[in-house]
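Milestone 3.1: sequence recovery, worked example.
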């Protein structure tokens, strides 16, 4: 994995990965992926790791600290790594680290990083303190 911001204090309460290949529909007219495509993938992964960790429905309360470091092109593989770096009562901070891979050469590069706050909610959409999964 290329250089990426590590979890705060080096502590990760849980980890999850995902990846997708960039399609032409995901890019602008000169072949770079739209940033929003990566944001959606990061939000989906943050949902998955937070829902698994809390064994609860979760909502995205905050998407912050986005840094885009390097463009990605159609045909590249985008790899997302999620770590839960803070656990509150009903909230969790998820650090997302995004890297790119040129499939034909194996070259890898850092793409982006972000910090998302996910909140566990009950059936009424209200914050719901949780016990982390074992
Ligand atoms: C997130 C949400 C459930 C919080 O409800 P709330 O009644 O304001 O919650 P509270 O003020 O009691 O805070 C509950 C927890 O969420 C955290 N939180 C709430 N808003 C936050 C924000 N903007 N950023 C970071 N954390 C936040 C609080 O720190 C608290 O954490 P803790 O329980 O671990 O101590 C509510 O604002 C909501 O439903 N927002 C819409 C979410 C959504 O639909 N997202 C999809 C994109 S639109």
């Amino acid at each position: 994995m290329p250089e990426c911001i590590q979890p705060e204090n080096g502590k990760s309460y849980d980890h999850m990965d995902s990846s997708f290949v960039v399609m032409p529909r995901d890019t602008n007219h000169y072949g770079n992926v739209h940033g929003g495509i990566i944001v959606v993938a990061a939000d989906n992964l943050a949902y998955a790791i937070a829902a698994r960790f809390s064994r609860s429905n979760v909502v995205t309360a905050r998407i912050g600290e986005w840094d885009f470091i390097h463009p990605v092109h159609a045909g590249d593989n985008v790899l997302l790594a999620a770590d839960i770096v803070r656990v509150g009562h009903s909230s969790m901070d998820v650090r997302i680290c995004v890297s790119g891979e040129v499939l034909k050469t194996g070259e890898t590069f850092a793409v982006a990083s972000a910090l998302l706050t996910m909140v566990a909610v009950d059936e009424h959409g209200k914050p719901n303190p949780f016990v982390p999964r074992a």
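The pocket of coenzyme A is lined by residues 59-62, 88-91, 117, 119, 121, 125, 127 (CB under 6 Å). The chain has one domain: 10-121.
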